[in-house]
């Protein structure tokens, strides 16, 4: 059974760097042809795709967040991580990690999400 679990601080100060980790069980993150993504949902708004890392380590970023976002992985721990720099209160959101398919971009397994609040 595939499971994803986000972890990280719930409260971060503005101008700092947010770091989140997604722990995956049930499937190695190097399995072809999956990608592993980060998606967020600000309060009262829709889902926003932030970026992903492919089974081969290739990274993909949303153009609007690319300058502030870095996604990496630790295959020995079966985890992948998100770093978002220079955060502002506008980055307050529920952050999700999810498994997707590189060919379609669709996501089939999601973590439960973690609330991140940015204080000014």
Give a written overview of the molecule:
Helix content is about 0%, strand content about 55%. The protein has strands at about 5, 10-15, 20-25, 35-40, 50-55, 60, 70-75, 80-85, 95-100, 105-110, 115-120. Strands 2, 4, 5, 6, 9, 10 and 11 form a seven-stranded mixed sheet that branches. The model has no long low-confidence stretch (mean pLDDT about 95). The N and C termini lie far apart (about 40 Å). With about 120 residues, the protein is mainly beta.
Low confidence ranges: none
Residue fraction in strands? over 45%
What is the radius of gyration computed over CA atoms, rounded to a whole number of angstroms? 13 Å
Describe the sheet with the most strands: 7 strands, mixed
Number of strand segments: 11
Put simply, the count of helices is: 0
Portion of residues in helices? under 10%
Query: Mean of residue pLDDT?
Result: 96
Shape: globular
H and E order: EEEEEEEEEEE
Amino-to-carboxy terminus distance: 40 Å
- Helix and strand content put the structural class at mainly beta
Helix and strand arrangement:
Elements: E1 3-7, E2 11-13, E3 18-25, E4 34-41, E5 48-54, E6 59-61, E7 69-74, E8 79-84, E9 93-101, E10 107-110, E11 114-119
Parallel strand pairs: 2-11
Antiparallel strand pairs: 1-3, 3-8, 4-5, 4-9, 5-6, 7-8, 9-10, 9-11
């Amino acid at each position: 059974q595939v499971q994803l679990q986000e972890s990280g601080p719930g409260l971060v100060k503005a101008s700092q760097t947010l770091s989140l980790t997604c722990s995956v069980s049930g499937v190695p993150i190097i399995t072809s042809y999956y990608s592993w993504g980060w998606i967020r949902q600000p309060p009262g708004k829709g889902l926003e795709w932030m970026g992903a890392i492919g089974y081969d380590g290739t990274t993909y970023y949303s153009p609007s967040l690319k300058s502030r976002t870095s996604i990496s992985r630790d295959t020995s721990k079966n985890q992948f991580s998100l770093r978002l720099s220079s955060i502002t209160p506008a980055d307050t959101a529920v952050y999700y990690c999810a498994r997707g398919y590189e060919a379609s971009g669709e996501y089939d397994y999601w973590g439960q999400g973690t609330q991140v609040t940015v204080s000014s």
